[in-house]
Design a protein that fits this description.
Number of strands: 15
Order of helices and strands: EHEHEEEHHHHHHEEHEEEEEEEHHHE
Number of domains: 2
CATH topology of the largest domain: Uridine Diphospho-n-acetylenolpyruvylglucosamine Reductase, domain 3
Radius of gyration: 20 Å
Structural class: alpha+beta
Largest sheet: 5 strands, antiparallel
Shape: globular
């Protein structure tokens, strides 16, 4: 049951921040409400003031100014169907297509997803491989933070009480980059998410840059530098041979806890299996996509 609250509908981001500053911990930004309203019904959160940001100018925009920018109020459905996202970052559109169900995607927003810092977020995991940064606004002005610094832990971010998340900016990979997102789960939220991209050199014979992020098993998603270093400079023809070592390195890098999604040992074993699988898929694509556009590859197990 929802407790009574006041709904504020400011006309600008600055007005919204002023409301947040006035009411402090008694106020919360409101967009799609898919997470917020659920927690309010459960009594976990009890804000007395909600600040509607859905109508704020620019918050629902998707733009490309060198980096792909998604406004905080852009819905998962808008990401899924955007021709601009499909052209610049097709894997993002493909992953958005597998977020929850279409009813949730029609109201749930990118900004709300990132601001709640749910450790089981598909988009947050994938965005790390795209060097994502978030823009925040407050009465003190605007600031940008790398997504890795913004997300501090499970349901914990660097956002101050009077700040609003305005947008997230992504750096798309070069065209024809072999990339894959794998997710696995038996409950409503995924147990594991693996995002991998292999940027190839001009000859498409070697990996010039590797990006690997693991989500859902730790309190926050994170890149895996040990695997990225292992793959950097590797010959495409040798990637299959590198899969076992990459999986072992990834499993050693995570620090999971026992919970309803499985034991820590189980999660480490799953990380090893899915990183190997992701690398083999990406290796197949690296050998077979020369001269063709990048096609997204999302697997839900």
């Amino acid at each position: 049951m929802l407790r009574p609250f006041a709904l504020h509908r400011p006309g600008t981001a600055e007005e919204a921040c002023a409301v947040l500053a006035r009411f402090g911990e008694d106020a919360a930004p409101y967009a799609g409400g898919t997470e917020l309203l659920l927690l309010m019904k459960l009594g976990v959160l009890r804000p007395r003031h909600l600040v509607d940001v859905k109508r704020l100018p620019g918050f629902d925009a998707i733009t490309d100014g060198g980096r792909l920018t998604l406004g905080a109020a852009v819905t998962h459905r808008a990401v899924e169907t955007s021709s601009l996202v499909s052209a610049r970052a097709p894997l993002v559109a493909a992953v958005a297509r597998h977020v929850a169900n279409v009813r949730v995607r029609n109201v749930g927003t990118v900004g709300g997803n990132l601001a709640f810092a749910d450790p089981h977020s598909d988009l947050a995991t994938l965005f790390l491989t795209l060097d994502a940064s978030v823009e925040l606004v407050s009465p003190r002005g605007r600031r940008a933070l790398a997504l890795a610094d913004f997300t501090r832990g499970a349901w914990d971010t660097a956002r101050e009480a009077d700040e609003l998340l305005v947008s997230v900016r992504l750096t798309p990979w070069p065209a024809a980059t072999p990339a894959v997102y794998l997710k696995f789960g038996v409950h409503e939220r995924p147990t594991l998410g693996v995002a991998l991209a292999l940027v190839l050199d001009a000859s498409r014979a070697r990996v010039s840059e590797a990006r690997l992020a693991i989500g859902c098993v730790d309190p926050r998603p994170a890149r895996v530098p040990s695997v990225e270093a292992r793959l950097r400079g590797a010959a495409v023809a040798e990637l299959e041979d590198a899969a076992v070592a990459a999986g072992d390195l990834a499993a050693a890098a995570v620090e999971p806890d026992d919970d309803l999604h499985g034991s820590a040992d189980y999660k480490r074993a799953m990380v090893a299996v899915f990183v190997r699988r992701a690398l083999r898929i990406a290796a197949d694509r690296a050998r077979g996509t020369a001269g063709r556009a990048q096609f997204p590859h999302t697997v839900v197990a």
